Known about the structure:
Distance between the termini of chain B: 25 Å
Strand content of chain A: 25-35%
CATH superfamily of chain A: P-loop containing nucleotide triphosphate hydrolases
Number of helices of chain B: 11
Radius of gyration of chain A: 18 Å
Number of strands of chain B: 0
Oligomer: heterodimer
Structural class of chain B: mainly alpha
Helix content of chain B: over 70%
CATH architecture of chain A: 3-Layer(aba) Sandwich
Number of strands of chain A: 9
Order of helices and strands of chain B: HHHHHHHHHHH
Largest interface: A-B, 32 and 26 residues
CATH class of chain A: Alpha Beta
Helix content of chain A: 25-40%
Shape of chain B: globular
Largest sheet of chain B: none
Amino acid sequence: MTDVAVHGLTKRFGGVTAVRDLSFAVTPGVTGFLGPNGAGKTTTLRMLLGLVRATAGSVTIGGRPYAELPHPRRVVGAMLDSIGFHPGRTGRQHLLISATAAGLPGSRVDEVLDTVGLTAGQAGRRVRGYSLGMRQRLGLAAALLGDPEVLVLDEPGNGLDPAGMAWLRRLLRDLGDDGRTIIVSSHVLAEVAQTADRVVIVNEGVLRYAGPVADLATPGGSLEDAFLRLTGASR
Amino acid sequence: MIIAAEFRKLRTVRSTWMLLGIAQLIVVAGVCGLMLNRDDRDSVAAQQGALAHVGLVALFSLLLGIMAIAGEYRHRTITDAYLATPRRERVVLAKLVVAAGAGLVLALTAAVTAVVTTVLWVGPALSLSSWELWRTLLGSIAWNVLFAAVGVGVGALVTNLIAAVATALAWIALVEGIVAQLLGDAGKWLPFALGSALESAPTSTGGPAPGWAGLALAAYAAALVAVAIATTVRRDVT
C-alpha cells in the first residue's frame, strides 16, 4: 500500500508556468490523470519520477521523494513517451539492460513479456521493426519489471488498436485490484472512465478536480460534459 | 549493477563492433602505407612509426566514449538509466569505467593487429627488444583509454550526439591546430598534441615527456567529466 502525495508542486520553464501549486494524493487503485494536451500532466509525472526538478513543492512516494527510494524500480514502474528504445536492440535486450541496471533478476524479463503478451519471437526482434502497439507493450513490460507497488503510465493507450485498448483496461484493472497504486494519464476521459476508481483533472497546470469518477457527473449531465466544463473547453 | 548494464548496452549496439572493425582496417592500411614508403623497414624508427597507428585509433575510442552517453540521449534510453539510478553521477561514472575499458580493448586489439601487420612486412627483424617500440605501444594504449574518458565527458556535457561528434572531429581536424598557433609553445599541451606526445612517435617532437602528457590528458578527462556531472545532475530530462 503505497500512496503518492503531491504538495504545492510548481514548475516554471523560463517564463512559462507548466504546473502551478498542484496538490493531490493518489491512493491504491486506478487513478486517471486527466487534462487536455499541454495541461501539465507529463511535466507532473516527470517531477514525480525525479526527471524534472520542481521549481517549488514536492512529490513523495510512500513518504519519500523518488530520488531517495533505495530501490526505485522495485517501488515505481514508469512508462513515459520519453523512455525510448535503441532501434538496433531487440525487445529482450532492452528489458535485460533495464533489469540489470535495476538489480533485478533476468528471469523477470520472461515474466513481464508474458504479462504484456509479447511472444518470444517478437521479443527477439529488433525494436526498429516494432509497431507502435508493440512498443507500448514493451514500454509497459519495462515498467512492470520491478513488480512495483506504484505504476506511472503516461498515455499508455496511444497506438493501441481497440482490442489492445480492451486488453490494457483489463490489465490495469487487475493490477489495481492487486492493491497497486496506478496513475494513468490521458487526454480522453472515455479512455479511463471505465477503468479508473478516481480521477485527477488538471488544466493549464492547475488542479480542477480530484475524487471518485462517480462524483464527477452532475445530475442530468454526462461525465464527458463535466470533464469539458472543468477543462474549460466549450462545445 | 550499473556497470554490468552499461557493458551490456555497449555490446548490444552494432556501432561498437563497427568502430572496432574499422579501427583494425585503419591500422592495417596505415602500417602498410608506411612500410611501402620506407627503405629502412628494419629500423626501430620505421617500426615505431608503424605501431604508432595504434595511437591514432584513439579517435575511435573518443567516439565510443561520446556514443556511450550522447547515444543514450539520442535514443532517449537515458530516461530509463536515470529511473533505475536517480543519482545520475553514478550513471556517468559507470559509463566512464566501461568506456575506458572499451578504449583499452580497442587499443589492445589494434596493437595486436599493428604488430602482426608489421611482422608481415619485416619478419624477424621486428625490434621486440627495443624499449622505444614498447613505449610507443603502451603510450598508444593509454591514449585510447584517456580519449575514451574524454569522450564520455564531451558526450555528457553536449548530450546531442551529432553536435558532440561534430565538436570532437572539428577540434581534432581544425580547431586544435588554430588554437595551437595562437598559443605558441603552450600548444603542445592541447589534447591531440598530448596524445601524440604520449605515444612518443618519431613524428612527435618537442612535446612533453610521455608521463607528463598522460597526466595532462587525464586532467583534461577529469575536468570534463567533473563539469559534465555537475550539469547532468541538474538538467531536466524531457
